[in-house]
């Protein structure tokens, strides 16, 4: 099991790591006499393709315009938590999809109607990590761990556990609530949002 403290990784470090990986692959290709179309150059190209490049627009604006993430985007505004994405720090949001809230029925409506922003803020903090962490980062960390899981603290203080089955990454909270990564991640500034199907807290 790998356990990470807060402040996992910043964007510049990730960019530098991939640049070094690509450079190393090209160097190996040169030493082995392989042409640019060889396996090493293909690996370098793949490393560059896997890099989640932040858009020029802020993460807050991207969420507001993202299909299926309107509920969490509005909740971030209502609670004031959206402002953290425009600050100097780096954060990763495990963004529950609209369908997740809709599936809660009346409990979901009472949670998202804006009447209890404190409860919504607490829920959102359960879905936020400190640091710029991509799905690729988490997947690689899981594969590198001895027992196939990685633990990271959320902003609420609870420890979230990440596991992987095939290509599917699942995150679980201490109370047993689970969510799976679902769809392409968004990146803006120094922060990331990863769509998830499910909530990491029982609100029924």
What does the secondary structure layout of this molecule look like, with pairings?
Layout (H helix, E strand, L loop, with lengths): L1 E2 L7 H22 L6 H12 L8 H6 L5 H10 L11 E6 L1 H5 L3 H7 L4 H10 L1 E3 L4 H10 L4 E5 L5 E7 L2 E5 L5 E4 L4 E3 L2 E7 L7
Parallel strand pairs: 1-4, 2-9
Antiparallel strand pairs: 2-3, 4-5, 5-6, 6-7, 7-9, 8-9
Helix pairs in contact: 1-2, 4-7
Features of this protein?
single chain, 204 residues, 21% strand, FAS1 domain
Describe what you observe in this structure.
The structure is a single chain. With 204 residues, the protein is of the alpha+beta class. The protein has two domains: 7-50; 59-197, FAS1 domain. It has helices spanning 11-32, 39-50, 59-64, 70-79, 98-102, 106-112, 117-126, 135-144; strands spanning 2-3, 91-96, 128-130, 149-153, 159-165, 168-172, 178-181, 186-188, 191-197. Strand 5 (159-165) and strand 6 (168-172) form a beta hairpin. Helix 1 packs antiparallel against helix 2 and helix 4 crosses helix 7. The two termini are 31 Å apart.
The rounded distance between the terminal residues' Cα atoms is 31 Å
As for the number of domains, it is 2
CATH superfamily of the largest domain: FAS1 domain
Compute the number of helices.
8
Major pleated sheet: 9 strands, mixed
Helix content: 40-55%
Write down the secondary-structure element order: EHHHHEHHHEHEEEEEE
Q: Please give the number of β-strands.
A: 9
What average pLDDT do the residues reach? 79
* Gross CATH architecture of the largest domain: Roll
Q: Uncertain spans, ≥5 residues at pLDDT below 50?
A: 5-49
| Global outline | globular
- Strand composition percent: 15-25%
Q: What's the CATH class label of the largest domain?
A: Mainly Beta
Kindly report the CATH topology of the largest domain.
Answer: FAS1 domain
Please compute the radius of gyration using only Cα atoms: 18 Å
**Which structural class do you get from the secondary structure elements?**
alpha+beta
